[in-house]
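Bench log, entry 3. Co-assembly request; chain sequences pasted below exactly as received.
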Amino acid sequence: VIRVGIVGFGTIGKRVADAVTSQPDMTVAGVAKRRPTGAAEVAVRRGFSLYAGGAPPAFESADLDVAGTKADLVDESDVVVDATPAGVGAEHRDLYEATDTPAIYQGGEDGDVAETTFVAGANYEAGRSAASTRVASCNTTGLARLLSTLDSSVGVADATVTIVRRGADPGTVDRGPIDDILPDPVGLPSHHAGDLRTVLPDVEVATMAMKVPATVMHLHAVEVTLGSRASVSSIRDLLADEPRIALLPGGAGFDGCGSVRELGRDLGRPRGDVWENCVWTDSMDVSGGVFRCFQAIHQESIVVPENVDAIRALVGDADGAASRERTNRTLGVGLDLSDKRVPA
Ligand SMILES: NC(=O)c1ccc[n+]([C@@H]2O[C@H](COP(=O)([O-])OP(=O)(O)OC[C@H]3O[C@@H](n4cnc5c(N)ncnc54)[C@H](OP(=O)(O)O)[C@@H]3O)[C@@H](O)[C@H]2O)c1
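Structure output for the full assembly:
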């Protein structure tokens, strides 16, 4: 059983901890965070051993038992998932390397923090020979899933993507905008294009991004010049076969990202999470050799299956197909709505 240490217990870390708990071949060695906030209390109540990311006395004065420091947690772990805020993971690299502990970083880090950047369906094998990897950001993961699925069958000559980004996660109080629409960044292309090349080096992609006052999801408007002739129905069948892509049928009330999130909640998923890329079937169009669609990406959860697969790639013995299948089955990834009308 792989002992997984999780450093950072926020939006991503708490979800990865729960996902690891549901894997038959993994266990959570413990979780580390800096401050004795409510999330630290949650970690203890969920049965995770708590390690101090900062000074242990802060936890003791809050009457929270800590099992040690984050260095102790690294010692207890076969692999570490670092889910700290952007830039903090890089500060932890020496800690992991000093004990030769394989490490998985998140998409907020620069690409050179790890040997590879990881999206399970696109480049699982690259993770197998690495001592460290970076799970791509939520937007890059969503794009890499879609483009690698298309590329594997019909080919992708190039792609242009407009990314409408949520301004903040629910519960985040210091980000915005609250009443504006921001080109973000103004300089084009946005950094997502370069990030995507770290996963799909042969796919030519241009990206433009903006931030809006929303917390629910990201929305992508995708245009792909296909490498060979394909019809809408053949692409629909191709995407329907990929469990990490869900097709939202027309006439089912999926008028926006809010109703997609509501579906996750109504299905009783943990935290209402939607791990799949959600592609509106009615948006799918092919003309002049270009495929177009809208897809929604739940930023808080899309990278969770990828983190589980990254753990297996680095220190497990499963190949990519076996790992993805196990992760999908244990988490419940896969929303087959293609021939149904689901009231939303
Ligand atoms: N949120 C998203 O939508 C999203 C999606 C994909 C990827 N990512 C990436 O995932 C990473 C984490 O993002 P997040 O949104 O999960 O962040 P977050 O919600 O702010 O959580 C960060 C966690 O790291 C802990 N932490 C901070 N400094 C630490 C330290 N020195 N030692 C140990 N723990 C420390 C924090 O604990 P304290 O509260 O105690 O400080 C908190 O538990 C970033 O690289 C981000 O870019 C985020």
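The pocket of NAP is lined by residues 7-13, 32-35, 37, 39, 53, 70, 83-86, 88, 106-109, 137-138, 169, 299-300, 303 (CB under 6 Å). The first strand starts at residue 2 and ends at 7.
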